[in-house]
Design goal:
This protein is of the alpha/beta class. The protein folds into two domains: about 270 residues, Aldehyde Dehydrogenase, Chain A, domain 1 (3-Layer(aba) Sandwich); about 190 residues, Aldehyde Dehydrogenase, Chain A, domain 2 (3-Layer(aba) Sandwich), CATH 3.40.309.10. It is about 40% helix and about 20% strand. It has 15 helices and 22 strands. The longest helix is centred in the N-terminal third of the chain and has 21 residues. It is globular and about 70 Å long. The chain binds nicotinamide-adenine-dinucleotide. The site of nicotinamide-adenine-dinucleotide has 30 residues, from helix 7 and helix 8. Nicotinamide-adenine-dinucleotide binds next to helix 7 and helix 8.
Amino acid sequence: MIGSVRPYWRNFIDGDWVDGAGGDRIAVENPATGEIIAEVARAMPADVDRAVAAARAAFDARALLDLRPSERGELMFAIARQLERMSDEIATVECLDNGKTLANGLAEVSLTVRYLTYYGGLADKLEGRQIPLGRDFLDYTIHMPFGVSAQIVPWNGPLPVGARSVACALVTGNTVVLKSPEDSPLSLFLLAEACEKAGVPRGAVNILCGYGRDAGAALVAHRDIDHIVFTGSVATGKSVLRAAAERVVPCVMELGGKSAGIVYGDADLDRAAKAAARGIFHHSGQICSAASRLIVHRSIHDAFLERLKAEAERRSVGPGVDGHDMGPLISLRQLEKVEALCKTGVAEGATLVTGGSRMAVHAGHFMRPTIFAGVRPDMMIAQEEFFGPVVVVIPFDTPEEAVAIANGTDYGLAAGIFTRDLRLAHWTADRLVAGQVYVNEWWVGGVETPFGGTRRSGYGREKGQEALLGYVQTKNVGIRL
Ligand code: NAD
């Protein structure tokens, strides 16, 4: 099933596959082996200029806007069909360029297809309002696209994260310039290929890969973009917002998280431990909504920890292509960051229950599943995002204390509650500062359920019907009859 990866990939600009303006290339590493498996053309600010000009021309020509909304929906279905045909190549690329397991690679294809068909189906259902002004007037609202949507994608799930933003933009009549992540660029080129084969109008979708510091910065600061969708870290998000502020460009910001699960004394401990382990160890913790803090009632603390430790230690770690439960971290840089933060945890006096260090498998960037107990909420390891397979366990005595600890970071992306008491679950969900709350599972919902941050986790929503509202602005038309 696992094939090889094409050795060289070009950027997709104005319907053509092109080399980078400077002629440079970016090497793509397999994080499970440290080997260079491919190169991509390095986009420079001049390439960004070309891509934005193409997207502008396509928007001004009303390439998508003049289609019936249902036809824009059909286009999403056509892209989805193309991606399905490319499933094996996508799964291979996700394993080799991203470090995903084969199962996860295939799951990413299904998820992406779901995003495209979900938003394709919604294309003709975004309705305006008629506002009554009395006998002599007709007044109605229209959802207008912004124009050129600039999109910046991180490396942890580039294909579904990129495709959902592209789909929302296209069905609402925007055009797109997307910068794929330099650490994992390949799957989004396959999305570009699917768009080309599906007949997306020339220039309506442009996908290029460059470094954040030049291509990314040039894109978000470009004077001819009208909208920004940024998914990535808080630090980069702030610099994107500064660029956006210069031209008052509206943004959807999907940033980091330090999401907490509260385990009450009456929870089903076996199920809670399984859900929590999946919540932190899936894709080696490189998920913004990972369950990276567990706030556990003192009465069941030790029994829960024992189960969680067993879950961590039964996971096999190794290359995704070999069928392991957990693959590598994306890069040596990320591995070093996670390991250094673990050392900080030990220095802060937290108890290392299991893991805490890298694993020597080939020359890959593998990190052991890690649990810290005896953690105080003010410790750095309870406040900073690891973006790795590390969970911190904090004990509590009262529900008020649990909520205060859960809400006690700069972030507010997701949160979880484990209890058999539905009244307590509602009480807690009401008080948690988070964009999504899961009860008795981690990650309840998916494509259909609105997702996004509060506080430094960002604003705006992706997924669900709400997401479309982030890609349009309301125009009111008032007519004197
Ligand atoms: P990052 O911020 O380093 O990079 C994200 C993207 O921004 C990359 O494509 C990068 O090239 C680009 N970039 C870097 N500097 C830029 C600049 N000055 N201007 C414009 N673009 C620039 O993040 P990362 O390390 O790739 O991803 C991990 C982070 O992303 C974590 O904090 C994680 O929580 C977050 N994330 C959030 C979500 C979400 O939906 N909330 C989803 C996935 C990841």
